[in-house]
Design brief:
Number of helices: 18
Shape: globular
Mean pLDDT: 91
Strand content: 5-15%
Largest sheet: 5 strands, mixed
Low-confidence stretches: 1-36
Distance between the termini: 48 Å
Helix content: 25-40%
Amino acid sequence: MKKPLLVLTALTLSLTAVLAACSKETTTTEPQPTATTNAPVPVSFKIMHGDGGNAYAKTVTADDPYIKEMSRLFSEYIKQPTTIGFELLNQTDYSQQLTVRFVSKDVPEVVSTTSIMDKGHPTAVENGVFLQLNELLDKYGQNLKKKIPSYIWDSPKVSKDGKIYGIPSLLNPVSPAAIYVRQDYMDKLGITKMPETPDEYLAFFEKVKNTDLNGNGKADEVGYAMRGGFGFSNLFFAPFGVYPGAWQLVDGKYTPDIVNPKMKDAIAFYKKLYDNGYIDKDFVSAKDVDWTNMIKNGRAAVWTHDLRNMGSSWGPSNFADKNVKLGLLPGFKMPDGTYRIQPKASGIAKVAVIMAGTKNPERIVQFYDWALSDDPVKTKFFEFGIKDRNYTEENGKVKWDGNADRNKNGESGFFQALINQASDTRMDLPVVESGGIIDTKVLSRGLEYAEKNQWVDPSVNMPQLEAVKTNPELDSAVGSLFVEMLLKTITGKEPVESGFNNFVAAWKKRGGDQAIEEATKWYNSQKK
């Protein structure tokens, strides 16, 4: 039993030593000509990257047409010859491979990782292995700085002590939460106004409960589809000013919403949903597949899920009723007139780090800046691929079929998401419109809601607290004291008042007070 631990310890110590050695061996390169000079300056660099489990990526060779085309387009954009290469590693053990590669000092100029503190290179920042990017971004990364929100640059996945070491690639949309609704059910019930308050949801759900909307002859419809572990089930916290996982300042202390007294009002509302039959009585024991089947069989009027799944999981062909009509809800209208769905997620899909000592690092920053630019030629490539290979044009309009042979088996996902170092174009409106599955008007509203109706919670950038590392039950996820209390109070096994108060006492006793102390110290250090 001890041998694997000894091996891991030795590997960790070795990695630390090597990273330190890498720092010492790094030499300052002489200034290199940049794209601002007139003379051609050929530059080549390689990006080490996970293959994302993409079937096409597993077949890629050095002369891959998409990587070559991307290099060509970027070279033409900056008017400097640039060759970009990718080394694609198996995604399932990518982090472990990072460890081995950093130990052996066998890494290319750029590495795609989850965070500058990924367990594959935990001490790289401290040992000077990664290039600090602040000055390069100021000079060559104007699109990056303009289009990536400031709170993302402050993320510990990207920066430390105000120094930036990574370039984030974003989800599209950045925080893709969505509130789905059966628009056809609203039409059948004669409801023309989208629900925006808890009371309006209750009125809507009461009508759903008493109407055989799916036509199966049973009174089995519910207002809201829920999961026992509360995954995709957090809709009704926002109107009460709290949200699991979020923190806010209470009496000078940075406190998690799960122990905020206002949480009792949210729990009481969930209990009302349960008592009134607006959520499934068996939701606690239901598996995720049961949740999915409930929705697809027309038993649920509202559910929360990822907006990016609109055309896949929630495409019309997946429903028992092929004529299903979906809509999206804006969230809850607050007293100040704004709408709220949930706090914004970090939005970071991956982080690119440049090795210290790399020649011409400005060219690499320019490449990532180009990927996020408004260059229409670049955008067309990342959306539709290569002309006459992936798409054709008629009268200047793109003709693209996502189900064509060239765009199946991961090939379109390869150029739309995997080698796209800015984001993911699969939810771009031109791509969706070409697919013909999703109503682009509905999607446009969803994208607007995701952008405007989510708020920035500073704790999204708070490093994991030591108290929570030691006592994971203090968190708000499945298996936590919080979820255990939620399920008991919602189903009536414990009264809301005493159940919540007992939970708070237990939470604080098991290390919660220490967690608040740590969080408050972090929050005060971030006030600037």
